[in-house]
Each structure stands twice: as C-alpha cells, then as structure tokens.
Amino acid sequence: MIDEERERLHDQRSKFGFQIERAKYYLSGFGADAIKIINSKANLPAADIEIITEDLAEHLEWEIDAMILAIKLIDAKLKELDGDDDEYEDG
Question: Can you tell me whether residue 88 is helix, strand or coil?
Fold first, then answer.
C-alpha cells in the first residue's frame, strides 16, 4: 500500500515537473507570439492586445506557482512516507 502511494506520488511529481517546464518555455516566448496570434484572429487595438497578453501571462505564472506548491506538498508527503528529509529538497 505504501509502495503504491509512493509510486503514485512520484508519478504526479514528475507530471507536475514536466508541466512546469513546458509552461515556463511558453511563458518565455509568450509576448511576441501571443500578440501575433491574437492579432491574426481579431482586429484589436494594440493596447487591448497588450492587456490580453499580460492577463494570459499572469494566469500562466499563477498556474506555475500552483504546480510548484503541489510539488512541495508531494515532497512533504514523500518525506513522511520515506522518513527522509534530504532527498526531495528544492527539487
């Protein structure tokens, strides 16, 4: 039972880690690409596009923060299961 829980937590942690890296990648090139995409789909003033882009980037940053928190919670549970305080530090 504990081994299954540990395996499930490691799997979830890995998935969150992948999603964080993917989100960071998209966030890094978000500005110019988002403006091009939004502008190709709608004829909006530049100020409106800038607001939309900033809102989308902020949302993506919140999602990254939430996934980082989830990883920290998973790490705490893994430490509890393993009795090891060092293996998952700032991973």
Answer: coil
Q: What is the CA radius of gyration of the chain?
A: 18
Measured at the CA of 60, the angle between CA 15 and CA 8, to 5 degrees, comes to: 15
Whether residue 7 lies inside any domain: the answer is yes
Q: What is the pTM of this model?
A: 0.71
* Amino acid at the residue 55: D
Other residues' Cβ atoms within 10 Å of the Cβ of residue 13: 20
- Show the DSSP H helices in 29-91 as ranges: 30-41, 46-82
pLDDT category at 50 given cuts 50, 70, 90 is confident
Which amino acid is residue 76, in one-letter code? A
**What sign has the CA pseudo-torsion 66, 71, 75, 78?**
positive
User: Which residue has 């928190």 as its token pair?
Assistant: 69
Residue among 1, 2, 19 nearest 77 (CA): 2
Residue 54 placed within a domain: yes
Domain count, the chain: 1
